[in-house]
Amino acid sequence: MAKAQSSSYFVILALSIAVNLLLVFQFCVDGEWRLTWSKRAAEEAERVAAIPCSGHGTAYLDGLVLDGKEPVCECNSCYEGPDCSEFVTECAANADSGDPYFLQPFWMQHAAQSAVLVAGWHRMGYSYPDGSYISAELEGHIRELHSTVGNAVTQGRYIVFGAGSTQLLNAAVHALSSDNSSNSSSPASVVATIPYYRLYKTQTEFFRSLDYRFEGDTSSFLNISEAGKVIEFVTSPNNPDGKLNKAVLHGPNASAIYDRVYYWPHFTAIPNPADDDLMLFSLSKLTGHAGSRFGWAVIKNESVYQKMTEYMSSSSMGVSRDAQLRALKLINVVLETRGKQIFEFGYHTMRNRWESLSKILSLSNRFSLQKLGPRYCTYFKKIRGPSPGNVSTNSRIFSLSIIEYKMSIIPPLS
Amino acid sequence: MAKAQSSSYFVILALSIAVNLLLVFQFCVDGEWRLTWSKRAAEEAERVAAIPCSGHGTAYLDGLVLDGKEPVCECNSCYEGPDCSEFVTECAANADSGDPYFLQPFWMQHAAQSAVLVAGWHRMGYSYPDGSYISAELEGHIRELHSTVGNAVTQGRYIVFGAGSTQLLNAAVHALSSDNSSNSSSPASVVATIPYYRLYKTQTEFFRSLDYRFEGDTSSFLNISEAGKVIEFVTSPNNPDGKLNKAVLHGPNASAIYDRVYYWPHFTAIPNPADDDLMLFSLSKLTGHAGSRFGWAVIKNESVYQKMTEYMSSSSMGVSRDAQLRALKLINVVLETRGKQIFEFGYHTMRNRWESLSKILSLSNRFSLQKLGPRYCTYFKKIRGPSPGNVSTNSRIFSLSIIEYKMSIIPPLS
């Protein structure tokens, strides 16, 4: 009897020791035991991320906070209420904004790879070790990205960072208009082909510079031979009609700023690597992080590069190092699968929305969509149907950014 | 015998179960078991932070990476080598830069409170829920901070964010020069009292606006009654001489931009809350985070506020939301002790450096420091000796930012 009792103790003891070992193993090998100062921030982020908002909204670390210290849910369009559970009937579609929320689910699925923990002492100084305002590691990642995707030549080209492509638009206009090669005293003419992104006009006019002036549609400059310096904005793929535009004006006095923010495989087929003199890209359109305000310019000419660098220095001492850290992490996630995961996800999401929208608009007598045929994409190595980021109807007065917009459903349009 | 064996088994079993319970308790109550997707980022940050760099440098998450994937040490001035262990003899002091590394040890001491974990889907959209580019929570924190420190009136005032005070300098010049109240067609004159921060001149000239022109020293405008619109930069406390300057020009055509970046208790005694029409502050000088590029303007006049908001929108669509999240976290740490910890730390560090520098320069025949007497500080509620952020020698040709600089030692100067 005693022997039986003793051996059953032995079994229980062996089990208990096994559990001990398992727990210690978990504790140590798992690596969690090592976390000290970073734990609080990690827990805080997970707590905020766990607020469900009924699946129709998001709570943010820097969002407004309730009395109970819980961040408030920020609801998607057409939803409201403290937990975003109330559907707003008769909710109108916002046709004037291009928030890139369509990639939010992708980043939620890649939570572990894309999170960044910023230490309290991260990059307190003004410059990186080479004295610049640009992270060399991030610049290297951007070059690798373009070479992987095959959408732009960067070898032997200069790179400048800006607060989104927005800040770089004016930096480019400044650089091209103040170039010393022409001694013309009259301001350079800045033009764009209709329909164009309205910021080209508003921003160029806003700065009221002695060096440049917005002059409207490109076509009015086609037959002027001695027009002085002309800077042409070229959006390729174009917003809102999706076309791979090329510069219309040529000659010694003409230069072009290629806005290439949509030249990624989720928005368009990539026929070849772009090799324009001055090209702009942005994180907003690549990964969907409009809020980070991060963009970059790829530049052939050294003096234009230096003028744009000087612009960034004088206007804001470069781009926030926090935004650069974030961009590095996000581009790293894109590169982990050579872009495959994000571009496949983005392409299918946009393509589905395009098809839904085509279907809805086909019921309308007032609007119809332009026809976009399938094209061969060198990145996907196959023929792909259209998945444009922005959409214009052929009435030409109504441009829809709705495809990119933060929507839980597509609200009725007609 | 069997009984003795059995009871010893029992004791061991009881111990083993106790250890199990302890481990499970640790696992659950400690909260670590909950971490899932945030763990990788937290571990990565702790691994980078653990790279010692011999105590004379820092490794950063976005720094250059060695082949073994380990970030490279970035060395403090006068140190070099892969682990920053080699002291550079004959190392000259950099007298032309004001990197705020003197607060780096403070943030290392407050690692847990100041860390931020940014989720992959943080703030992907362009705007906050109110449609602005400004975090309402951060704006609230900034108002609370000024009210706690007593260095600026913010009640009934508007707040605009910028990429450091740098971007706001030009936003303010733009807003004050394009004000419709005066219909003068000639550009506004922008002036500053010598010695002034050189960016006032370089930036104002850089933008080559039709609306304003840099005209040099304020004194040349003192006797001109009908000079047209004049915008005066006033740095208070002044950089480099530490004086609490006031605007010199008055009248219906004169307006002032008060650069108040050094108006914090670690740099100067606070005699009263500043209540100027347009005041600029920055995170760089408050918490030492120059790299985040975050600043704010406190503005009395609604139309000036609207013009500055429009400037931020047109030039960069606001400030990076990543930088805003970071600023929120850092200001939160400052507020946790009503500023006591950081201002005491900053004051003592700056004061010790000032005393060391005074001692070294007293040995020189060529340089001497201006005399700064002790003053009553309403924040510390006592009389405090000088601790200026920047230093100028009375030769007036040599301005030293050395006190703020990233140094492990003060290198020989004379």
From TrEMBL, chains A, B:
Keywords: Aminotransferase, Membrane, Pyridoxal phosphate, Transferase, Transmembrane, Transmembrane helix. Homodimer. This is Alliinase C-terminal domain-containing protein. PANTHER family: BIFUNCTIONAL ASPARTATE AMINOTRANSFERASE AND GLUTAMATE/ASPARTATE-PREPHENATE AMINOTRANSFERASE-RELATED, TRYPTOPHAN AMINOTRANSFERASE-RELATED PROTEIN 3. It comes from the Eukaryota. The chain crosses the membrane at residues 6-29. Residues 93-389 form the Alliinase C-terminal domain. One of its GO terms (molecular function) is carbon-sulfur lyase activity. Coiled coil: none annotated. It comes from Prunus persica (Peach). Belongs to the alliinase family.
